[in-house]
Structure formats: C-alpha cells, structure tokens
Amino acid sequence: MSQIARVVAAVALAGVAALAWADYPEKPVTLVVPFAAGGPSDKIARDLAEALRKPLGQTVVIENAVGAGGTIGSAKVARAAPDGYTLLVHHIGMATAPALYRKLAYKVPEDFETLGLINEAPSVVIGKPTLAASNFKELRQWISSSGGKVNLANAGLGSASHLCGLMLQSALKTNMTPVPYKGTAPAMTDLIGGQVDLMCEQATNAVPQIEGKKVKVYGITSLERLALPALKDTPTLAEAGLDEFNVQVWHGLYAPRGTPAAVLAKLNAALRAALKDPELIKREEALGLAVVTDGRLDPAGHRKFVEAEKNRWAKVIKDAGEYAD
Ligand code: MLT
Questions:
Q1: How far is the CA of 125 from the centre of ligand 1 (A)?
Q2: Which of 51, 133, 230, 274 has a CA-to-CA distance to 151 between 20 and 30 Å?
Q3: Pocket of ligand 1, candidates 46, 100, 202, 221: which has the most ligand atoms within 8 Å of its Cβ, to mutate?
C-alpha cells in the first residue's frame, strides 16, 4: 500500500471509530467517588454530576467506592470497561498513592485517561477549641516545645489531611504524633471534642466548624488568602512564617485507559461546560474552592500536572517514611 493509501485508510478508520461513538452517552454515566458520602470529595462530585447532566444529555450517578485512601475506587475505575460510562473523581491522592502504597493495583497516570482538572481547594490548620495558642506563631512555639507529643489528626493514610500534615511537619522541621481516623467525620468529631490537638483539613470541611466556633483556625495552606467571611482574618501559612508553604487539594476527572478519543473529547467538552455553570461556580466558591480555568483543564495539561505532583510528593512521603502495603 502506498503512503497516501495508508493515510487515507487511517483517516477512514478514525472516522468510522468516531461514528461508532457519535451517540455517546446513550445511558447514565457512573461517577465513582473513592471516599465516603457526605465528605468533601463526595460533595464536589455530586455538584459536578449535576452540572454535567446538561452538556452530556444524560444523568450522572454517584457511586461511593470507599477505602484505602481512595485506592479501592481508583482500582475499580482502572479495571472498568473503557467506554466512557465509568469515570472517577479523585483528589491529590491520585498523585500520592504510588509513593504511599507499596502494592498498588494500578499505575499513575498510565492506567487512566486524564480528562481535566476540576478545582483546587486549600486546607486550613485547625485546632481543638481549648488550645491556648492564639495565632500561628504561638502554635509553632508550642509544637516545637512539645517534643513530638502534639496529636495531629487525619482522615486515614492517603487522605488530604494526612498529606497536609506530612507537609506541615516537613516545613516545621518537627514531628507530631499522627492520629489516623476512618474518615473526615470521626477525625473532626474528636478534634471538636478535644481528644486530638490539631488537623490540617480541607477548607470545604472545616469552614462550617470555624463559623460555629467549634475549632480554632491558625492558617491557610495556599499562597493566597481565602475570600470566605469565616477566614477573612486568617493569614496564609506563608505569611505566618512558613516560607512558600503551598498545599492545595485538587480534584480531577479520569476515565479508564483506552477510552475512545471521540468519547474523551465529549467528556472534556462537557467538563469545560460544567465548570462554566454559574450555579456550580457559586457552590464551589462557597466551599472555598477555585474552579480550574487554565491549561490543566486540557487532558495533556492535567496529565503533566499529575506527574509533577507525583514527583513533588514522593520526596515528602519518602522523608516521612509513612507507607502502607
Ligand atoms: C473525603 O471526601 O472523605 C476526603 O476528601 C477524604 C480526604 O480527606 O482525603
């Protein structure tokens, strides 16, 4: 076959493949959330599912596939049929799992199609209501003088609070005693009750507790302050003395590897449309989240970002020596 004939044949085949998926989606799409219902990731996924309904012309149903820091739900999607009907919403844990878990049933990003980054969510350092420290400087002095005895709650290995806690200890050059819980809800309950001292939790989950004065807030983990009323006087950790401290819990949308290009293009277009939905933007802003509008909304940009985050966190996790099998 001549070169021209080969090119013509390839273009024709691509055309046939695209035609085969022209009516996608023809039935509801499942969005797997690898964390519990009612938590930050679940809230984000439910809002996104609602906003995707119009551009996709189909219902998007949520399935919570919970456990092992989000790796159970991720493995499920990595193994699902690559037909665009099973997708994954996952946070920063997508990039940190390869360093945290000695045995991981999937490869990142190789076993997934990146569909675009959804949002970025700063965390906040919060403390039990009876803590004496009234600002981050005093908190830092207290942590340094406690000889590692300060209890730092987290929502389990691989959770956003666990990762933020690792980064915080690394920046403070000090150790605290990690106290892992089975999710954000029990960790927050014990922080409010004073059974643990501190937590570095997603603003999404912490703001209602700060508003209700059930916890103390010491700093924001992003480089920019947050425009939420509950945090209007809260400095960033970088401002409070932790130079360039920047931890954001981002969320992205994924499909199994091998999903047809025509389906990926439809899903990326639907995601872009959903992230322009004024109702979604309003809901995200109320939770302290910023919708992504830059090149990371592009599948290639999203993939590059995941790879960069994977490298960035691998060192922090290795230095901390906290792994799971
Ligand atoms: C959740 O939705 O439960 C959280 O995002 C879990 C976490 O803290 O990583």
A1: 16
A2: 230
A3: 202
Fold (topology level) of 3-121+250-320: D-Maltodextrin-Binding Protein; domain 2 (3.40.190)
Residue of the nearest CA to atom 9 in ligand 1? 159
Domains 3-121+250-320 and 122-220 share a fold: yes
Which phi and psi (to 5°) does residue 179 adopt? -125, 100
Superfamily of domain 122-220: Periplasmic binding protein-like II (3.40.190.10)
Residue 200 tokens read as: 């570095």
Domain edges within the chain: 3-121+250-320, 122-220
pLDDT at 287: 85
Pocket test for ligand 1, best of 31, 32, 33, 41 (most atoms within 8 A of CB): 41
Question: What is the maximum alpha-carbon separation in the chain?
Answer: 80
Cβ(36) to ligand 1 under 6 A? yes
Tokens of 167: 């980064």
- Closest by CA position to 96, among listed 317, 325, 320, 321: 317
Residue nearest to ligand 1 atom 6, measured at CA: 159
> What pTM did the predictor assign?
0.88
Alpha carbon distance 2, 97 (integer Å): 47
The first and second tokens of residue 292, run together, are 């992504």
Pocket of ligand 1 contains residue 67 by CB under 6 Å: no
Q: What is the pLDDT of residues 166-221, one digit of tens each?
A: 999 999 999 899 999 888 889 999 999 999 999 999 998 999 999 999 999 999 99
